[in-house]
Amino acid sequence: xxxxYTWGTPNGRKVSIxxxxxxxxxxVHAIDITKGDQFTPQxxxxxxxxxxxxxxxxxxxxxxxxxxFESGAILIYLAEKxxxxxxxxxxxxxxVLEWLMFQMGGIGxxxxxxxxxxxxxxxxxxxAIERYSKETRRLYGVLDARLGEAEFIAxxxxxxxxxxxxxxxxxxxxGVDLAEVPNVKRWMDTLGGRxxxxxxxxxx
Length: 204
Known about the structure:
Layout lengths: L1 E5 L3 H12 L4 E5 L10 H4 L9 E4 L8 E4 L1 H12 L7 H31 L5 H22 L11 H10 L2 H4 L7 H11 L2 H7 L3
């Protein structure tokens, strides 16, 4: 059994999508980040960085519970645990991991800053809005180019798709017009039609 500690953010939804796709049994523990639940001693014991998501695998590799934090690390751990959505062949595996890191190092941080300055900053900061919005559009362009040559991010459906998709679902916060990135739109429609993705996006 997997205990999932999460909230309704793109990073949280990556993991619930995987759990649904892999048909792994899991329990949801809602960590309301708007109320500071992520700073409680109980949660910090699981993730010292006080961020969602985190998991505790009650059936860890040595038969003992194992806590894992950082969404990318969780996806890799679960993929290796189940043998799903991360190929074993070195070239195919490297392709998935590089696009997963593209999300972790680019899409996540940059889209997150775009969300903050366009939606949540207490006052407009034009320089920041322009900087992060421009970088967000650039990353969408990279994604669109890739999806113009492959059905899924890493050729076959993988944890890279699961990591990126929830961030693109916040496109209205980013001021992005999907008409400008038709390959991304096609891919989003494909993923959005998957029942497991729909279920994962509804957690918690």
